[in-house]
Amino acid sequence: MTDLLLDGPPDASATLVLAHGAGAPMDSPFLARIAEGVASQGIRVARFEFPYMRARREGGRRGGPDSAPVLRERWLEVVAKLGGGAGLVIGGKSMGGRIASMVADEAGARGLVCLGYPFHPPGRPDRLRVAHLKTLQTPALFVQGTRDTLGSREEIATYELAPSIRVVFLEDGDHSFKPRARSGATLEGNLDEAVRAVAEFVRSRFPV
């Protein structure tokens, strides 16, 4: 599995799989911070890249994200490689989490974690990406900054989401959980809170 980044104990009873967002790779500072933090709690964490990002890494090409069917196929391929959804919580940053949410039920994932879900494109709150979230069966944790421009706390309060979804808000956080200095919150504090929430959720999906 040379195309995966693995953190945490290889014999852990719980495994979390994370995909990257549209613009940053699997070893971005954000995703590394979350993966390493969760792994330090005794959870195995696997990270992977979609084909377009792997092509950027290997050849330096700057192509945009793959089509939705290709992204979905890659997710299902990774789930199968890691032994099937019944042994995994799947998710990721922004687009990576969005695609995970689209395959979670099909893959039979034990849980779903979305870090900064893109509820709509930038500046287009009328183009919602919530249709499939109304009927999602997989237990899910969404971690969202309160002022995320792709889905703020005020906006999310108006959405119809499945009962399986729980949303944890990070104070004054943007799409990458960074707060404004005047808020009194800190990025490190928000990332710590995100790691705690994710680790607790993953452990809850693998009861001893």
Describe the 3D structure.
- This protein is α/β, with parallel strands linked by helices and 208 residues long.
- It has a single domain (5-205), classed as 3-Layer(aba) Sandwich (Rossmann fold), CATH 3.40.50.1820.
- Helices cover 34% and strands 17% of the residues.
- The protein is built from 6 helices and 7 strands; from the N terminus they run E-E-H-E-H-H-E-H-E-E-H-E-H.
- A 7-stranded mixed sheet has the order 1-3-2-4-5-6-7, with helices on both faces.
- Helix 4 (95-107) links the parallel strand 4 (89-93) and strand 5 (111-115).
- Helix 1 (29-39) packs across helix 6 (187-205) and helix 3 crosses helix 4.
- The relative contact order is 0.14.
Task: Give short descriptive properties of this protein.
208 residues, alpha/beta, Rossmann fold, 7-stranded mixed beta sheet, 6 helices, 34% helix
Total number of helices: 6
**Count of domains:** 1
Radius of gyration: 16 Å
Low-pLDDT segments, ≥5 res: none
CATH class: Alpha Beta
Distance between the termini: 27 Å
Major sheet size, sense and barrel closure: 7 strands, mixed
Query: Beta-sheet strand percentage?
Result: 15-25%
Write the layout of secondary structure elements.
Blueprint: E1 5-7, E2 15-19, H1 29-39, E3 44-48, H2 51-59, H3 68-81, E4 89-93, H4 95-107, E5 111-115, E6 140-145, H5 153-156, E7 165-170, H6 187-205
Parallel strand pairs: 2-3, 2-4, 4-5, 5-6, 6-7
Antiparallel strand pairs: 1-3
Short description:
The chain is of the alpha/beta class and 208 residues long.
